[in-house]
Amino acid sequence: MSVHKNVKRVTTHTLQEMKNAGVKISMLTGYDFSMARIIDTAGIDVILVGDSASNVMAGHETTLPITLDEMIYHASSVVRGVNRALVVVDMPFGSYQGNSREALSSAIRIMKQSGAHAIKLEGGREVIESVTRILTAGIPVMGHLGLTPQSIYKFGTYTVRAKEDEEAQRLIEDAKLLEEAGCFAIVLEKIPADLAEEVAKSVSIPIIGIGAGNGVDGQVLVVHDMLGINNEFSPRFLRKYNNLYEEMMGSIQRYIEDVKSGDFPNENEQY
To answer: What spatial distance separates the first Cα and last Cα of the chain, rounded to whole Å?
Structure first.
């Protein structure tokens, strides 16, 4: 889709200006063209092509199975539906950990083949070499600290992170490391609100929270969760703005009834 002349694209620079001006940043996940077009037209600032696609689109239990090729497929679908939002793509598990050369080639593939605007990866000091190397290629990097779902088997649980002082201190240091390396923003997932606010004040780059309270610079949710399409997931941090599960179920059941009864199609619905 062509970029409309009157639409001003959101860039990493825009997000920095928003933080500086105290304007909150809105972010949602998106995985396909049709949904991305709606989210973008609604006026969202950032669309995250999340590796949560592994769960909500592919039905996996964790984010680990999704591949680089699959992420590129989702990302390119989203990019084609977007005129304004900044599109950030999650680097999937195994595409950057422990090998900064592989991290760079993965990031380059995402940018070249999807047309997205930035990548996101999980972790602090343990991935800093990958972050630095990707940034040297001119690719914007968003960080992700707190609950890092790709490390689920290390944590063994999806509970709140950084409740202990030592982990909290380490998280603040990691945020500063990511900022110094050149990340343009950081997602903080499922950490105490006070700590998240402290992080947002101690770095100058935007901090986007999910289950991290209101003292940060913006919020992100999984679109299937906030629309109530996925009705099996109700953590405390989630506000459901709709119950599309029930609405869609009702529509589909009415369609089935109309087909079975011969009511659909009627005379106006045929040639």
So the answer is: 31
pLDDT digits (tens, 9 = 90+) for 4-62: 557 899 999 999 999 999 999 999 999 999 999 999 999 999 999 999 999 999 999 99
Beta strand residue intervals within 7-138, DSSP E: 25-29, 46-49, 86-90, 118-120
How far is Cα 83 from Cα 103, in angstroms, rounded to an integer? 28
Nearest to 142 by CA among 196, 172, 178, 101: 178
Q: Which of 189, 197, 232, 257 is catalytic?
A: 189
What does the block give as tokens for 266? 């009627």
Decide: 79 and 113 in contact? Cβ < 8 Å: no
3-class secondary structure for 132-160?
HHHHHCCCCEEEEEECCHHHHHHHCCCCC
Euclidean distance between CA atoms 77 and 54, whole angstroms: 15
Tell me which residue has tokens 């529509």: 251
Q: Which domains does the chain have, with CATH numbers?
A: 12-240 (3.20.20.60), 243-271 (no CATH)
Residue 219 C-alpha from the chain's centroid: 10
Contact 244, 229 (CB under 8 A): yes
Give the model confidence (pLDDT) of 121-152 as tens digits: 999 999 999 999 999 999 999 999 999 999 98
CB 198, CB 148: distance < 8 Å: no
Token duo for residue 245:
């599960």
232 catalytic residue (yes or no): no
